[in-house]
Amino acid sequence: MTILNYEGTVTVPKAQTQETDTSPDCIAVTSVDLQAQKFTLAWILMNKKKMYSDRRLLQRLLCIWPQDKRDSYLSDILNGKSQKDLFILARISPILKELYQRLEDEQDENKKQAIQGNIDYFEALQKAGYEYLVIDGQHRLDNLVKFFNAKPGEFVPLISGGPQYRFKIKTAKGDYVPFDVCSSPFYEWPESVKQIVLNKIPFLFSIVTEGDIKELKLLFVGANDGEPLSMFEKLIIESYGETVRFIMDLIDTDEKIGNPIWQLEYKDKFKGMSGHFKIDKRGDALMYSEELYYICNDYKPVSSKIEFLREIYADDYFLSKTIQTRMKMSLAVRSLGCKDQSKIADSTRVNSGNAHIMLCIMDDKSHPAREGLTDLARYEVVKGSEKSFMDWFWEYEARRKATNPFLKDATGNFLLTHDGKKIKNPDSYLEHCRFSWENLAKRHSEIAKDFVEHKDWLEGQGIIRKVGVSFSNPAKHRVEMAVQQGFLDEFGEEISFFDDLSGENPKEVGHIVPKSFSGTPEDGRKLIGKTRNIRESNK
Hints:
This protein is of the alpha+beta class. It has helices spanning about 40-45, 65-80, 90-105, 110-125, 140-150, 190-200, 215-225, 230-235, 240-250, 260-265, 285-295, 320-340, 350-365, 385-400, 430, 440-460, 475-485, 495-500, 535-539; strands spanning about 5, 10, 30-40, 50, 85-90, 130-135, 170, 175-180, 200-210, 380, 465, 510, 525-530.
């Protein structure tokens, strides 16, 4: 029998072995060591700053309880039901101890880097003063602190007419009268009532003092059986690797992360954010995770909806900086390009995924859609031109989807079903887009074809540019070009040596044609007039 005393220690009587028992001695090896303890409200308020609620990884998104739910919980606390709910905390120090051992035992360098990333994460928490992870109970802790630590201007009264709270205070006459806690903040309560609430109401805690971090995550899943988690939420909880932190940083609204609001709102501009993709089920994280896996998997198709993500969500998966940079670039271009649009007409998650495919083709010379295009340079979207790029992309995405969506006979007439409906073309771009990340060959070829066909125009408009191709413009280059041009600029205007070549406002060196038509970075350049716009000249 296990005995729990008021101080919170757990006493487990030593098992007695009968004299006739000849079985060998044994010990139970458990994956998690839990210690049950009772703590007062005073202890909770004093130590709350040491408890880290990782709302991005371990916990659900921290939401504001509706007042009736908050009041119901506080009513239970004040009416003797404080022990009906269990709080689960995990000490950070043993988690780090386990990770140190894994790092020492691991031989694979990529996995060692991934484990080191986890170590850095928990060491940062310790450095910030945290001692515990909140495994279960973050919303209850949050509401306890908000009510009992409320300062002037922060207090939200309990709904009057609720349950009768069992407090009576002694009057000057020696009588006891009921005390109404509904309308006054805690700091205004009589001292005798405050002391009872702070020091006499027990709360049950289970402290994880030893245990593998994976077991802690499974513990949380079990603790939340009353409110089912989605498959993807469980996947997030099951991971503490670099990937989950990277994805959560992409969607986090915490100002410390620094995500601009346009990026955070990008997910709201598309159809299909339902089911597994509901925002309150981390649907935006799922959307970006699929796009990230597309890069990690070398742009190959996948058939599973969620299971394939387990590979990159493993605790020891190494997520390279190159892949992280490519994913951030893609999201930034798409988000900036759409920030001024409340909704994107007829666009779905797949459309956004196709824009992601386009940007990956542009950025990665090893992309399979570049097969046979060995001379195709890397391209990037010019900063400030994201909207122009996305406007172009949406136009040609609509063109691709509108190309041969239905089957026709030899005379050009649509083939119809028995009830008169057009028969979809199974080989159309539109139809291939219905399979999300399962069927990519058609989408790769059509998207790459459109980019190759229009890249020169896009570059000429200043919307995109080659990566790694730059041009320095020192004075000697201007002089050399002036000599070659007979001291006449592109428009036949005379070039002044002192004013136009070495003065404070020299003539610009620009391409007489876009760089895409140049054999080398140095070809096709001429001195052009100071008052002329290079881009207009190129047109």
